[in-house]
Task: structure prediction
Amino acid sequence: MFRRLALACLGTLLCVSCTQRTNFVDAAVAIDADIGDGGSDAGSDAGPPVDAGEDLSDVLIYAHSRDTLYTFSPFTNTVTEVGPFRLAGGGEADFMIDLAVDSEGEVFTSTDAELYAVDPLTAEVTLIGDLGLGGDELFALSFLPPGQSPDGSELLIGATNEGVIYSVNRETAATTMLGMYPDGWRSSGDIVSVEDLGTFATLRRDDFTSDVLAQILFSADGTATVSVIGPTRSPTEDFRELFGLGYWGRNVYGFTNSGQLLRIDRMSGAAEVVSTATGSDQFWGAGVTTTVPFLI
Result:
């Protein structure tokens, strides 16, 4: 069952505060949202067999707490600590809010005000620049591959807690407003995008007891469609505060603010706990390369 939600005209809502705009958002950007019931009996599998096509055994999803970087192997269900985030001189870095990984495996993180490049082997961070968002923070950071991006290039985007979406210049950290989620939907924590598959996000709204999994389709004409797939819940538990997302095989993987690691069915939003013994009592973000192999 689907319920049509009203259009939210992004350019109209927010362009009064936007002084820099790229060509593909000059048109009024509209987000349309559908919602399905996403029943919890979708039957997420435990991961594809080794010989299921693409070699998925060496895929790593990066995740982090506020101060420490981890890797997760969905093939072995193993979380490994890389180390605490540190500046080049060894100093302590600011708390990291979210993380994104590009097509080449380069890792980026954001604090409450700045964008950093991250050495994925050591967790050493290098300042790129100030995001220039005043009091706003990017709680959902992801690269869009060319096939998912509005302008056909690999694009770094981020969403605030209230669901305002920005593009981010990976070289300077300069931001440009793209739009916002419609009809009271806000960002619950993250976005993950996979070339030739799609862009997924976790959203929240006051009338839902769990987060919801949604899919975002950006179009070249400056519009985007958000389809809410379903609640992130199991038969016995509602899952909220999914602050990190990755992808592997046929499933989205979610990392919660309470340190849970979840497997989420991409077709329904149904979720199950993979592990609570993750080595961290909290996750604030996650990401995987946009070229991660996937299974249909």
The chain has one domain: 3-36+56-287. The domain at 3-36+56-287 is CATH 2.120.10 (Neuraminidase). The helical segments are 10-14.
